[in-house]
Design goal:
The chain has about 230 residues and is an alpha/beta fold. It contains six helices and 14 strands. The strands form four sheets. It has an eight-stranded mixed β-sheet with strand order 5-6-4-1-7-12-9-13, with helices on both faces. It starts with a strand and ends in a 5-residue tail after the last helix.
Length: about 230
């Protein structure tokens, strides 16, 4: 198994509390947030992780090097912002597997990666998305799910509970070549939303720990959610 970790975020909304660091390096109890994303990959037996980096990439490379514990690391470096889709497509050149996980570098999700892969293969899906049910979906935008597949995206801002995109994808690398897309594009806005009906992503439901540290309030909550190592 291989994973692309989108670690090129600028962390604009965190600038007031995390200065001079890329978002994935934001310290949580003395460790970079990225370390909490890589730990489960080691536990799940991943063969490699490709870190898609850009803003202050040297700080990530300097800290982690070419291995994190037993996990080999490769780097895909953006020389200019490419958006989530462009970053994934660039990083795919460093992957060997035909099916690759993609993990958002600012979101932690407690997930059974092996079970997600097994379900993806069983269904013969070209794209599987980890889905989490939350009590307030307004910030993220809820998903329209029917018979286990995502059929559409509801507008952000709608209050109340709902199933949301939890920030982990499993996709066939050839999916990105099916559509004419510019070098810089959003995986969500430019690919998923306009083509969701034909792609019909498989929804892999999970109810583990979920947190997005993209705003100061949740970044502060992460400090209490993750206990420091003894």
């Amino acid at each position: 198994m291989e994973a692309i970790v989108l670690a090129g975020g600028l962390g604009t909304r965190l600038r007031g509390v995390v200065a001079d660091l890329p978002k994935a390096m934001a310290p949580v109890n003395g460790r970079p947030f990225l370390a909490y994303l890589l730990d489960p990959l080691i536990a799940a037996g991943f063969d490699a992780a490709i870190l898609a980096v850009g803003y202050m990439s040297e700080k990530i490379q300097g800290h982690f090097g070419d291995h994190y514990g037993s996990l080999p690391l490769r780097y895909s470096v953006e020389t200019e912002p490419l958006g989530t889709g462009g970053a994934i497509k660039l990083a795919m050149a460093h992957a060997d597997a035909s099916t690759v996980f993609v993990v958002n570098g600012d979101t932690y999700l407690e997930l059974d990666y092996g079970a997600m892969l097994a379900e993806h293969r069983r269904a013969g899906s070209c794209l599987t998305i980890a889905v989490q049910t939350v009590s307030e979906a307004g910030r993220y935008g809820a998903l329209d799910i029917d018979a286990g597949h995502i059929r559409g995206f509801l507008e952000k801002g709608r209050s109340g509970p709902g199933s949301i995109n939890a920030g982990v994808y499993l996709l066939l690398r050839e999916l990105l070549d099916r559509y004419p897309l510019p070098p810089a594009f959003s995986f969500e806005t430019d690919l998923l939303m306009p083509h969701v009906k034909e792609i019909a992503p498989l929804a892999f439901q999970t109810q583990g720990i979920f947190i997005d540290i993209g705003v100061p309030k949740d970044y502060a909550r992460a400090q209490t959610m993750f206990r420091p190592r003894q």
